[in-house]
Structure formats: C-alpha cells, structure tokens
Design a protein that fits this description.
191 residues; mainly alpha; protein kinase C binding; membrane; coiled coil; cytoplasm
Length: 191
C-alpha cells in the first residue's frame, strides 16, 4: 500500500497549458522543477500568488489518480478473471481427487480381498504340504519294509478271495428226524 509520505517526497512535473511543448522542465520555463507535493498539499501556501501552476499541478495529480484507479480496476478485473479460472481449476482438481479417492477405496477393497484369498491359499498349501510330507514318510517306511523283506528273501504273495455269505445260503447243521419211539427202559430189560 502506498502511503502519503512517499507521494509527498516525490517531485512532480507540471505540464504546460499548451500541448505542443515537451514536458522537460529545461525546455519549458513555465514548469517549476522545485515544486513538489509538499508544497502542493501545504495549506500555508498562498494560492493567490500564482494560481496557474497550482491548478495544473492539481490536474496532473487528478490525471495520475485517474490512471492509478484505472490501473487498479484493470488489475482487479484481471484478478477476478484469474480467480474464476482458478476456481474452475480447483473444482476440476476436487473432482479428480474425489474420483481418485473412490478408485483408491475400490483398489484397497480389492487388495484386501486378494490378501484374504492369499492367506486362505497359504493355509491350504501348508495343509497339503503337511499331508504330502506325512504320505512321503509312510511311503519311505513301506519302501524300507519292502527292502527288508527282499533282503531276507521271505517275500511271499498271498492271494485270497473273500466269499460273502450273501452269495450262498448259510450251511445249516444236518440233524436227522427220528420217529418217536420210546426209549427202552432199564426195568423191562431186566425181566
């Protein structure tokens, strides 16, 4: 922000009343280079002495003020346009961030499911490996028994067949049926 003190310390070039001559004080004797803003704003300055340069100085100051206001308005308009553009860019970034967040949550969910499946598969693989090791130990034991039997040369193959009782009726014991006769009594034989 520009303060009044910096403006007061600046020297002003006062243009002449006719537009033809240049603004250089050495070429135009009506311009007073020793006149500065302190003298213009000083209330003790006598305005009745020479009112020409004071009016020109005021007009110059007003022109500069108008130019500064125009510049400020133009800059403000440019800043507003830039702000609108920035808002649209920020909205686009927010939309992209929302999409990215949704995609990230979906990806995290998928990765979590894959990790669960991987853990289950790992457990299954450990169980299968344990069973395979157990079967391998049993096979080695059988191979050792087989090698021992071959070394002793007592290897015999037994083939047998199981016949189930459902194919043939069970064999019942045979008891002959005898007629009813009375067994001899010991008293009849003695007579």
């Amino acid at each position: 922000m520009v303060t009044l003190e910096t403006h007061q310390s600046q020297e002003l070039q006062v243009p002449s009343s006719d537009p033809g001559p240049s603004l250089d004080p050495s070429l135009d004797p009506s311009l007073d280079p020793s006149l500065n803003l302190n003298q213009v704003l000083d209330p003790s300055l006598d305005l009745n002495q020479d009112s020409g340069p004071n009016a020109i100085t005021v007009l110059t100051l007003l022109d500069k003020l108008v130019l500064m206001l125009d510049t400020v308005q133009r800059d403000q308009h440019n800043m507003e346009v830039h702000q609108v553009q920035m808002e649209s860019v920020v909205r686009g970034i927010q939309a992209d961030m929302t999409k990215l967040s949704k995609s990230h949550s979906h990806t995290a969910n998928t990765v979590s499911k894959l990790l669960d499946k991987s853990k289950k598969l790992s457990v299954t693989m450990k169980e299968v490996r344990a069973q395979m090791e157990k079967q391998g130990a049993q096979v080695k034991k059988l191979e050792a028994n087989h090698a021992h039997l071959i070394d002793r040369n007592q290897f015999r193959v037994l083939i047998f067949q199981v016949i189930y009782s459902t194919y043939y009726p069970p064999i019942m014991p045979y008891y002959p049926i005898l007629p009813h006769t009375q067994p001899p009594t010991p008293s009849n034989n003695a007579k």
